[in-house]
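User: Quick sanity check before I run a bigger batch. Here is a single chain. Can you write out its predicted 3D structure?
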Amino acid sequence: MDSAVLEGVSHGALDVIIVGGSLTGLMYGIMMKRLGHNVRILEQHTSTHREGQAAGISTGAQMQQFLAKYDLIKEPCAVSADGLQIVDSEFHLKDSRKIPFRLTTWKCLYYRLRANFDGLSSEYVTAPPNGLEGDGKALFEPGKRVVSVSDIDGLCSVDYEDLTSGQQGTAKGHLVIGADGSYSSVRKLMLQDSQPVYAGYLTWRATVPETDVSEETRQAFENKTTLYTMDRSYMIIYFVPGDQGSIKPGERHINFVWYYNCPDHTSEFADIMTDIDGQRHRSTLPPGKVRAAAWTKQQEQYNQLRAAPVKDLISKVKTPFVTAVADFQASQASFLDGKVLLVGEALALFRPHVAQSTNQSAIGCMLLEKVMKGDVKLLDWQQEVMKFAHLTRLWSNAYGTRLLCGYLVWRYHDLRHRLALAAAKWGYLL
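Assistant: Done. Predicted structure follows.
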């Protein structure tokens, strides 16, 4: 098979293998299933149900467009906010902007997408929708770690290890989509020298039930996304759905993301990223694994937390988690004559300042649908996803360094972004 098969040339149902069953993999799986192709997702995580993913997510315009097109569940799964308020360390208003936000959590989106992909029932979606006429088959297989991808007689052969049984297996298909995140196994097999680079700062994250904080605190954050600025640090605070995805007032959670400078060569970094069992993590220290002493030290040493609503919120945190912020972009998105594609954070990882991760997945997914229908060439798909990744990564770097770093660092990244935007208008990636 070559890229012509992906570009709408007459063919029957394809066998599509997606490596990675998180949000991006599920989005591509749903799209391919709706086109009538048979989809098999190989997910390394050993359980089909996912716990501990408390991260808040802002769903941008393209992600909302994806859900409007593919989500058969019509009940909303996001909290709305009408604007952004920017406040200083005393919570004095510095600026406000009329920007609509749709705010949810990783778990809400995951179970919404699983219900649409393979009909998984959960506390978030108790009655999954029936499939549509013409849908392809959908199979979600947890506990599968991919070890090789090759082209054998025109088909992709994916070898994997079953992490539950220890046995080896092989899946064969016409197309392999690498959607297995920033430390992608598929990308390592295709591009062995491509790895994320630490940005020099961490995020502390958590959600707190709104009933745990005072009425004054709830009102301070109601119907808005708050950017709380400090000296070379800041927080993003907003409401998200609560338990079982409820968006009813009184049942929601308040999510915060606290950006904190912490070079990775310091003892402080090692101390923060070492969990309750003494294991050091490279990228994410999950909920329930953060040592109480590390979280207490983080609060005590930061005397800039003077605003009452923020102090109230932070004092109610029970299970924070930590992410080491990194970014990178792969040098290409298509391999083996278009039989292997990298998508989402397997292709490019952004620093999270501009909240474009799900938008990246939605843009690439809906554009690939046009490739499958013959409306867009695969080469054009690659050019578009690479351009979006390049410009968004530079944009996010500039935005973050403005709030976290000195003037010269910010000016460098800002200039890089401006030059890249200008070059893109002439068809160049700079």
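The first strand starts at residue 15 and ends at 19.

User: Great, the batch can go ahead then.
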